[in-house]
Amino acid sequence: MKTNHPLSVCLWVLSLLAGCATVPPELQGQVTPLTLHQVETDPQRYRGQTVRWGGTILKVENKSQVSRVQILARPLDREGRPRQDAEPLGRFMAVTPAFLDPAIYLPGRELTVVGDLAGTTEISVGERKLRIPVLEAERWHLWPRREEKPQVIVYPYLWYDFWWYYPWGPCCW
After folding, report:
1. Which residues contact 80 (CB under 8 A, 6 or more apart)?
2. Is residue 161 part of a domain?
3. Per residue in 90-113, pLDDT tens?
4. What is the pTM of this model?
5. Domain CATH for 35
């Protein structure tokens, strides 16, 4: 009996790789694929729609009944994590009755939120007033910090140049 062993190994590896790029459980579910720009142009039209947005935390405010998180939106990758290399899309506010500790939800951390659109709110950025969408956060995921990899510069011909020009190299014989 002949088996397709290499094919079964390839399928097994592909299934493992497909499993690695999944959205965290708290971010899964049906969402409406709306962009921040669409909602900013006509917020009342999309009120109540469930979206998944994310970005970088700018500010956390804890009021008596709610926590408000101001987020600089970025496009999400296929895992639902904000793309660090992408241009910011604008700002939005995530609001939840849960207490979000500002010592944990620090500015600069990446956060993805799933929730219903609840209109807009006005914020101040410097002396400017902006209207930004508000998301009633049902679920969220605070992403672990990205590891900074040191940049390694390789000079491929350094050893060759050293050997060639030093007194014991062929140029001096």
Report:
1. 23, 24, 27, 52, 54, 112, 141
2. no
3. 999 999 999 999 999 999 999 999
4. 0.73
5. 2.40.50.140
3-class secondary structure, 11: helix
For 110-153, write each residue's pLDDT tens digit. 999 999 999 999 999 999 999 999 999 999 999 999 887 777 77
Single out the residue of 20, 122, 22, 19 nearest to residue 70, CA to CA. 122
- Distance of alpha carbon 156 from the chain centroid: 35
* Chain center to CA of 37: 18
Contacts (Cβ under 8 Å, ≥6 apart) of 26:
114, 139, 140, 141
pLDDT-derived band of residue 4, with 50, 70 and 90 as boundaries?
Answer: low
Domain count, the chain: 1
* Nearest partner of 95 among 128, 132, 145, 40, judged by Cα: 132
What gap in Å lies between CA 73 and CA 71, rounded to an integer? 6
What is the span of the domain harbouring residue 56? 25-145
